[in-house]
User: Which sequence fits this backbone?
């Protein structure tokens, strides 16, 4: 079993690749829920849906979120009625959120609801929320403490970031599936997808027990850098690094995951920073990490799974030596 930690777009891309090279029984994708919020009375879970739609092959590749071939009658009518339209929900996407909310209201856990929605959409690999309890990412900015969606969508990630809070994380428990996976003797590797470290991965690591379990796991632990050539391919990861007074580079990604991972997978564009990464105690692994299409995803996933196997063999050899 391989455990992958994922946010939305970058996470979903690699998760899709991993799902092409691993059987459903060999992969669990634990997804950030720090972006979740209640909007128009609906429980919206953007990262779970991005991963779910991508694995189902029905995601909109242009927008990066939502369902392909979407229609917008609901939003158009809502605008006419003077409703809130800063957060877009297409008609098909709306159905997901209505059905999720109905099931949650009936008392089902988010894990169970997610399992059912995935089943209905033909997703065979396990997609599990990091927790069934509410954890809300708050962003400390020059415009004040903002709810995640207020920062990210309404204000387009323009405010300058000073820090983050994952409200409720201390009281939350990891989902049963994630807990079982982390303590499963059959766990083979942990892969941190190329997701935003602060907004997508840190919320997962903030759930009590997750960080320790990964830090102490006797299996290869790899992250794939979301920063390529000093830039984020999408979203504010690089901007946030600079606003926090750090350099936007793969070295900063390595520093962020220090003590947690054995190796960081970086793109060829960043190969010259390998020595600096090695100084953090993390092994740099260089390959193509930009996933333009399904082939790239599959190739990167194959390489990453291969790296895990290499790390495992090296461990076995050094233990025998
Ligand atoms: P979000 O929840 O939609 O913001 O998605 P994530 O946090 O999972 O992903 C955002 C990060 O994915 C950004 O920092 C991007 O740079 C990174 N990303 C997106 N596509 C790729 C890709 O093809 N390769 C790599 N290495 N990173 C990517
Ligand atoms: Ca997200």
Assistant:
């Amino acid at each position: 079993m391989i455990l992958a930690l994922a946010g939305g777009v970058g996470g979903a891309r690699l998760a899709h690749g991993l799902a092409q090279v691993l059987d459903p029984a060999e992969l669990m994708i634990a997804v950030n829920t720090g972006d979740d919020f209640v909007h128009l009375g609906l429980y919206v879970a953007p990262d779970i849906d991005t991963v779910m739609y991508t694995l189902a092959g029905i995601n909109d590749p242009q927008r990066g979120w939502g369902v392909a071939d979407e229609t917008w009658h609901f939003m158009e009518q809502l605008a006419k009625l003077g409703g809130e339209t800063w957060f877009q929900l297409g008609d098909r996407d709306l159905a997901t959120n209505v059905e999720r909310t109905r099931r949650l209201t009936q008392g089902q856990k988010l894990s169970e609801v997610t399992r059912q929605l995935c089943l209905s959409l033909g997703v065979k690999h396990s997609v599990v929320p990091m927790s069934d309890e509410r954890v809300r990412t708050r962003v400390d900015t020059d415009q004040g403490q903002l709810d995640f969606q207020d920062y990210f969508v309404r204000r387009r990630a323009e405010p300058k970031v000073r820090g983050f809070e994952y409200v409720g994380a201390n009281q939350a428990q990891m989902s049963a599936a994630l807990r079982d996976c982390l303590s499963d003797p059959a766990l083979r590797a942990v892969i941190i997808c190329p997701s935003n470290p602060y907004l997508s991965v840190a919320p997962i690591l903030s759930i009590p027990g997750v960080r320790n379990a990964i830090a102490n796991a006797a299996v290869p632990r790899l992250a794939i850098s979301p920063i390529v050539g000093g830039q984020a391919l999408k979203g504010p990861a690089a901007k946030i690094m600079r606003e926090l007074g750090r350099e936007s580079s793969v070295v900063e990604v390595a520093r962020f995951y220090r003590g947690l991972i054995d190796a960081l997978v970086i793109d060829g564009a960043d190969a010259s920073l390998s020595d600096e990464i090695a100084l953090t105690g993390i092994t740099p692994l260089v390959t193509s990490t930009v996933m333009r299409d399904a082939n790239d995803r599959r190739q990167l996933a194959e390489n990453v799974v291969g790296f895990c196997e290499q790390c495992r063999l090296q461990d076995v050899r050094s233990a025998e030596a």
